[in-house]
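Q: How would the structure tokens look for this protein?
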Amino acid sequence: IFSVQEKAEVLIQDMQHKIASVKKVIDTVEPVKVAVVDGIGESELFSIGGTGLENKLLAAAGARNLFDYVQDHYFDLSFEELISKNPDVIVIFERDEKGDGQKKIHFVKNKPEFAGISAVKNNKFVIVSSSSMFPSLQNADAVVHLAKALHPDKF
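A: Here is the predicted structure in token form.
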């Protein structure tokens, strides 16, 4: 309709190249055990299961979503579930509001129940724009960002 096939092809190739470059670097590393916090509530968190694109982007970046067995795209994650999985890193989905990611980190770090979680004890949080995790031209950049944050010694 818009006669932009050539531009689209260049964009696709660029995205594929970025993801292939990450894969080459992290191909032999053990995936980092992560949990995603997308939203926070009084007694639960909002996270991602194993059925959405976000889970595939995490895997491409060398992460293992500890809730990939959940057969929902998004789900309510109880505090107890997060504690029992003990992630090494907590990936924070930042909404478009400025500082939203830092507020989520502050919430998690100041919840006494979470003090024993490895990610909290070791201050291992990665903020990623939630819009880059939805189907978009930003997906490859999100993979690169996550991979560099999760495997800094490889980049």
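The helical segments are 5-26, 53-60, 79-85, 100-109, 118-121, 130-133, 139-150.

The radius of gyration is 16 Å.

Upvote if useful.
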